[in-house]
Amino acid sequence: MKMKGKEMLGKGRTRSDTTPLLGKHKQQHQQPHPKNRFHSSPSACSHSISSPLFLEMAAAISSASSSPTSHCNVFLGVDVGTGSARAGLFDEEGRLLGSANSPIQIWKEGDCIEQSSTDIWHAVCSAVKAACSLAKIDGEQVKGIGFAATCSLVAVDADGSPVTVSWSGDSRRNIIVWMDHRAVKQAEKINSRNSPVLQYCGGSVSPEMQPPKLLWVKENLLESWSMVFRWMDLSDWLSYRATGDDTRSLCTTACKWTYLGHAHMQHINEKDSRDMEACGWDDDFWEEIGLGDLVEGHHAKIGRSVAFPGHALGSGLTLTAAKARNSGTPVGTSLIDAHAGGVGVMESLPEKENDNEAICHRMVLVCGTSTCHMAVSRDKLFIPGVWGPFWSAMIPEYWLTEGGQSATGALLDYIIESHVASPLLANHAASQKISLFQLLNNILESMMRELQCPFIAALTEDTHVLPDFHGNRSPIADPKAKGVVFGLTLDPSEQQLARLYLAAVQAIAYGTRHIVEHCNANGCPIILPRESESVLLGAAILGAVAAKNYTCLSEAMKALNAAGQVIHPSTDSRVKKYHDAKYRIFRELYQQQLSHRSIMAQALA
């Protein structure tokens, strides 16, 4: 089992359209950070993307340091997370040469969570420029580019301009963020149809997937619905914005749009497989859920052509459509951010293996605001409550199954920031010049010694958490599930906050255990990758494949993935016994919630 930590930092900003893309920006190198964070802050002005669709980014790359560092081949990965856009440059050994981030704005109003594609593009260009400068990389050294992003839904018109998906009518807000839960009722409506395509989604669609969100827009924002020319996953939109090619990825379409990727099994060895006609849409599905108009024009609004991850798009990165004088820097077909993390870490082994089937015995954890648990196999596996199987959605020719927890980093943020001791804790961490999480760990160690606990985990014997604060994605697939904290007191101290934090961390781990057990897998060591920026590395690998430096994605993964620390399970039998007991309570908390839900439903009937 491999685990990767992903940092997403940043807050909303105000910026005008005159902000120089090539001018001097105060950017900081993205350092490893223990916390995932996002803030809502509306911008004071809007940004138009009606100008020609080609590329400030190319200029940003070319504006690197005047004294570039010598590297034969460099690959650029771009990752747009929930709170920031990040860029990283890697050499041919998969080593990070430099990275930078730029914050993006986010609006949160109840279950509605929205972003701006214009703001995101500016942030991407800013991060790319800063990363190139920090790495002292000249644009000519960048041989390939890949994009990864959250599975958020982007709406644009025929000119590529944003179309609002917000009740506010604000045209900047043209992205429904992945974690938006406005479409719970639409998801229930779709699931009631029991369409055959649902068996490839774990038996049901989640409100975090695109069909429920599309149905919500049609039912609630009819004017916007009629204006949209393209509906795109965010990572596909980034590739489109960079190349003018609106070919969709098998990753995004299969995992979030109910596209049946296995319709392309016969294309895997074809030379022109990068631009395949989209034959995996189930037209009956779209018709029966009330979105039959998306079938029109050979599915023009949702994707007429698809490609395997890493295949080169269009003519690559271009300055303008009319003035491009060469093929441009190759841009690979995109991946969802978690899946890019999988590509960036799944071959990170202490000792390389030649067995192509060995990869089928691993599970990747990609952790950020939420957590994804991913495994691949040669044969399709249908597991209720676990998304998939998706053919070639991450690694070509392998079936992907995907579990997940909707709130992990976000849950830790909430537990800490909502506690009365949070400001005091932050001040103490700042004064000691350590991270807030290091301070929490120090407090827990002191508590263990003072209370003479046998091990740190025992501090939460009376405190239990059910982490479903944003519903349960896997394996229960219940978006209505609620979080539970058992064992609260009136204690306002930092020590009590540390105890709650530890209980939340344990609950997240028990959620992973629940998913692993449900997938009928076995526990095993955790391998941390050498490079902590695995999503950026995964995106860069797409660029390396697009640049033809490797014959296929699997070959590139083996060349560029590398292992770091290996963490083995505790050999203390008391620790196992303790966590087994806590896990039993963890499971019972959800069963009790179902019982309570039934009691209240009967009372209100």
Strand order of the largest sheet: 1-15-16-18-17
Number of strands: 22
What portion of residues belong to β-strands?
Answer: 15-25%
Superfamily (CATH H level) name of the domain at 74-338: ATPase, nucleotide binding domain
CATH architecture of the domain at 74-338: 2-Layer Sandwich
SSE-based structural type = alpha+beta
Supply the CATH class of the domain at 74-338. Alpha Beta
In helices, the fraction of residues equals 25-40%
Task: Extract low-pLDDT stretches.
Answer: 1-55, 320-327
Radius of gyration, in angstroms, nearest whole number: 23 Å
In short:
The protein is of the alpha+beta class and 605 residues long. The protein has helices at 56-62, 117-135, 184-191, 210-220, 222-227, 234-243, 250-256, 283-288, 296-299, 337-345, 409-417, 422-432, 436-451, 494-518, 534-546, 553-560, 573-604; strands spanning 2-5, 74-80, 84-90, 96-103, 107-109, 112-115, 142-149, 153-156, 175-176, 230-233, 248-249, 276-277, 305-307, 331-336, 364-367, 371-377, 387-391, 399-405, 464-466, 484-486, 526-529, 563-567.
Give an account of the 3D structure.
The protein has 17 helices and 22 strands. It has 605 residues and is α+β, with helices and mostly antiparallel strands. Among the domains are: 265 residues, Nucleotidyltransferase, domain 5; 151 residues, Methane Monooxygenase Hydroxylase, Chain G, domain 1 (Up-down Bundle), CATH 1.20.58.2240. The chain has a 5-stranded mixed β-sheet, sandwiched between helices. A 5-stranded mixed β-sheet has the order 4-3-2-7-14. Strand 17 and strand 18 form a beta hairpin. The two termini are 46 Å apart. 52% of the residues are buried.
